[in-house]
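sorry to bug you again but im stuck and you know this stuff better than me. theres a chain ive been looking at and ive put its sequence and its fold in token form underneath. id like you to explain what the token line says about the fold, in plain words if possible. anything you notice is useful, everything is just below.
___
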Amino acid sequence: MTNVSDASGTSFKRALNPTLLSDVALASYPLLGQLLALWSPAGHDSEGGKRLRLFIRDGYVNFYAEGQSVFMVSFGKDGLKFRIHRKYVLEDVPSADQGHLSISGDSLQADLSAWHDRARRHSSKKAEKVFVDLLLGANPDVIDVEAALPGVLVTNEVTGEESLVAPRMDLVALEPCAGGYRLVFWEAKLSENPETRVRNPEDPEVVRQLGKYREWLEDPAHKRAVIDAYTEACRMLVALHELVDAAPPLGQAILAVGSGRAEIVDLDPQIRLVIRESRKEGTQGGKKVRAFRDPAFTQNGHAQKLENAGVPLLLIGPGGSFVLAPDA
């Protein structure tokens, strides 16, 4: 078991330089316009990664293709700067090389298409990231993915060793509540992920993981910082959306908060877990079956064990809806 304490204050921010959210910036940096033209907001299909997801960070924007972070656009004092992961530009990049390359703001459409296609090929190998993208397509009020909490100091009670980590929550969404909206957080996993297996009911890995997130979010200062950050993120999403002609609409909650018609008044620190049961092929009753529930997950009672451990759980079987129901 581990104890978790915050080691970096409340530095959780979502903001961009507003002076660069303009038609002038679009004219000065053609690549920004090309990226925004590919934007498919939450609640809309990404067409298998052909269209991009956009999320606000602290000083920059992340563009994703089927759950894979591809482009980063920094909104700094010196203008826009564009970066892309090396593996989407260069051939045979070692897996240990996680560096990025700067790219020109007037890069050609042909270059963008080539980088985008390579990113989609990488994403196809990461089924859990594709699952997150499917969830995005069904839930218009998701405002963030891979939300990294500031460094959390984790102490191993056995060895006494400490390490600073930045755990990431898969999905952040808005949900109606009394007085406005509240933030809710989801962790998304496939049933074959070993972390979903509760072999030790007293100490399941996924329960420890979600507990770390909850402890951080329950701190009043952290809660305030997160609410303020995502209020600003909604404003920035609305501002960026206004720069795009004929863009698919934003979710109603994002529009309401981003335009100042509603407020984020609360957050739920209890992280929710959504699990997609694996599709299996085989035979049942002498007949070939293309998709049925993962017997290793359901029949062995792992879902029940998670619920018994106090984890709010949404289970999606083959053919099931990807809508994240409130209070799962």
Notes: Confidence is low (pLDDT under 50) at residues 1-10. The first helix runs from residue 23 to 28. The chain is about 30% helix and 30% strand.
